[in-house]
From TrEMBL:
One of its GO terms (biological process) is chemotaxis. InterPro entries: CheD-like_sf, Chemorcpt_Glu_NH3ase_CheD, Cytotoxic_necrot_fac-like_cat. Keywords: Chemotaxis, Hydrolase. GO terms for molecular function: protein-glutamine glutaminase activity. Belongs to the CheD family. Its EC number is 3.5.1.44. This is Probable chemoreceptor glutamine deamidase CheD. The keyword Lipid metabolism does not apply. Probably deamidates glutamine residues to glutamate on methyl-accepting chemotaxis receptors (MCPs), playing an important role in chemotaxis. It catalyses: L-glutaminyl-[protein] + H2O = L-glutamyl-[protein] + NH4(+).
Length: 162
């Protein structure tokens, strides 16, 4: 069977089985959250834009927010045959893409996204095994469900596997 590369757009999430790969391009302040069940060879990827749905007026798109996206991703993984007790996580993104005068907390969206994702992983009891976050550069990620490897590509900062 040929492996497919499944694109996961902004504020979206997908679950797939090996040998497929999940890919998210252009992660700036957004965070790519990869969940993995090694035994079931099952993976999920959410492209999270904002830290919390509680502060938003429009919460129709639950994949947009760290809290609701993780709830959805865990549910989808379990529906597809995953076991939450085996899930591990890798995350990438959360860059500070622009500098603002005063640099108030509200502008540190990348950092806040990373914190929110980490808090929500803890809430679900999912171990974070690797991350590539921060900096001031964008990332494209490719999650290999066969191996659990997360390839992180950057412009000007090379690429690495976590």
């Amino acid at each position: 069977m040929m492996a497919q590369i499944i694109q996961v757009g902004m504020a979206d999430l997908r679950v797939a089985k090996a040998p497929d790969k999940l890919m998210s391009a252009g992660l700036g302040s957004c965070v790519g959250v990869c969940l993995y069940d090694k035994t079931a060879k099952l993976g999920g990827l959410a492209h999270v834009m904002l830290p919390a749905s509680l502060q938003a007026k429009n919460v129709q798109n639950r994949a947009k927010f760290a809290d609701t996206a993780l709830d959805m991703l865990v549910d989808e993984m379990e529906k597809t045959g995953g076991n939450r007790a085996r899930f591990t996580a890798k995350i990438a993104g959360g860059a500070q893409m622009f500098r603002f005068a005063g640099d108030s907390d509200i502008m540190r969206i990348g950092e806040r996204n990373v914190q929110a994702v980490e808090e929500n992983l803890r809430r679900h009891g999912i171990k974070l095994v690797a991350k590539d976050t921060g900096g001031n550069f964008g990332r494209t990620i490719v999650f290999d469900i066969e191996t659990g490897d997360l390839l992180v590509k950057t412009i000007g900062h090379g690429e690495r596997v976590i």
